[in-house]
Design a protein that fits this description.
Elements lengths: L1 E8 L11 H10 L4 E7 L3 H9 L3 E10 L2 E6 L11 H10 L3 E4 L20 E6 L5 H15 L2 E5 L11 E6 L5 H10 L2 E5 L4 H21 L1
Parallel strand pairs: 1-2, 2-3, 5-6, 6-7
Antiparallel strand pairs: 1-8, 3-4, 4-5, 8-9
The protein binds zinc ion (ZN) (2 copies).
The site of one zinc ion has 4 residues, from loops.
Length: about 220
């Protein structure tokens, strides 16, 4: 069966995201997704909490800050520590039974892996809907996927509800379960789709963030 999933979303469990668990499910459904991966920065707790509270298919994951750049780990049951090299981080993800994805490898102003993407990764995030410059980053990531024979996936890297679903992966999975999705990604039964998040949505996100900071400031 085909599953349409945004594989890179941050919730309020990441300090820099505005997406509440309620927003997450609301917008994922609204965008016609069947599943969504929760990939908060260096933590896993929120993903499991949210998965327990909803019937919507949540793929538990996290975005690990390796010393070489950011790495998305999906289908893991234990926290992957930050600060190790990309090679060691991928090894740790595999030991934990997870899928290692080189996310936004060629994006500027972010912890990107660039030449540190290697063949031990399971997949590469060819489309990151918030990547800048978008076209160039997709092209470079496509070339790397081709060279290293890696599966291709897409995600939004959403930090604001309405951004969810601009990047998504269509996965040919045996059944709608996290295990089946993880297996299909590793085996390459997946295809990336997406378009850049509109500038206005990124601007709205910044405005909301400033509002939230101002509110906190007034209340303290
Ligand atoms: Zn990142
Ligand atoms: Zn991210």
């Amino acid at each position: 069966m085909q599953i349409k999933a945004d594989l890179h979303v941050h919730t309020t469990y990441s300090k820099d995201s505005l997406i509440t668990p309620k927003d997450l499910v609301y917008y994922a459904k609204k965008r016609g997704l069947n599943a969504v991966a929760v990939t908060d920065h260096n933590q896993l707790e929120g993903a499991y909490k949210i998965a327990k509270e909803t019937d919507f298919l949540i793929i538990p994951g996290m975005e690990v800050s390796s010393s070489d750049g950011h790495i998305v780990a999906l289908n893991i049951h234990e926290l992957i520590p930050r600060g190790f090299s990309a090679v060691e981080t991928v090894e740790r993800i595999h030991k934990a039974g997870g899928v290692a994805i080189a996310c936004h490898p060629y994006v500027q102003f972010k912890g990107c892996l660039r030449e540190k993407v290697c063949a031990t990764f399971d997949a590469i995030e060819v489309i990151n809907a918030r990547a800048f410059p978008f076209k160039n980053s997709v092209k470079k990531a496509e070339e790397t996927a081709e060279r290293l024979k890696l599966s291709r996936v897409a995600g939004t890297d959403a930090h604001y509800g309405p951004q969810i679903g601009y990047g998504y992966t269509v996965i040919e999975a045996a059944e709608p379960s996290v295990e089946a999705i993880a297996k299909a990604i590793v085996e390459g039964h997946c295809q990336p789709f997406g378009q850049p998040v509109p500038f206005t949505l990124n601007l709205q996100q910044e405005l909301q963030r400033v509002k939230r900071m101002a509110k906190k400031f007034i209340h303290t």
